[in-house]
Design goal:
- Helices cover about 20% and strands about 30% of the residues.
- By secondary structure, the chain is an alpha/beta fold.
- The protein has two domains: about 80 residues; about 55 residues, no CATH class.
- It has a five-stranded mixed beta sheet, with helices on one face. A four-stranded parallel beta sheet has the order 2-1-3-4, covered by helices on one side.
- Strand 3, helix 2 and strand 4 form a beta-alpha-beta unit.
- The longest helix has 13 residues.
- The radius of gyration is 18 Å and the shape is elongated.
- Bound molecules: zinc ion.
- The site of zinc ion (ZN) has 8 residues, from loops.
Length: about 160
Amino acid sequence: MRIASLPQPAGTGCESGFRGVVCVSFDSADDTADHDAGGRPRHDLRFTSANPESLSELRSALLRSSVGIRLVLTGSPVDIHAAAAVAAECGLAEEEVTLVSDESGLRVVFCAHCRTRTETVEPIGSEVECQGCATDLEIANHFSRRQAAYLGFAANAEEAA
Ligand SMILES: [Zn+2]
């Protein structure tokens, strides 16, 4: 008698107990092929963006894998940081996750004042107007894994005080 196997989420061929390098790339990036897995087994996942569907696929792939995997995330900051937050949820330590950021892509700035998330292509250290409170935010070189966003503080806080 055969019991039908549980349906597997499409696209995650990561066998359970996989120990190796999981390379996840989001559409804008095309350079994961060059990442050196150091001779370890390698599993590729490709997504168009970090939407709820792809993130849940990533989550199930990570949860099926063993302790000791390495995760390489390639793509725009907004995508890889969303994926990094999922990895953190799944118990991966920061040193097990490598972010290969396409710096020309979108990043998310989390307003320290009104907690609105503003997407921008401006680099770290530059200013962006908060979509919530219209404050000029300086994009801090501080990434919050919990918010999956860069923190933004009023750029003119000192002068305005
Ligand atoms: Zn704000």
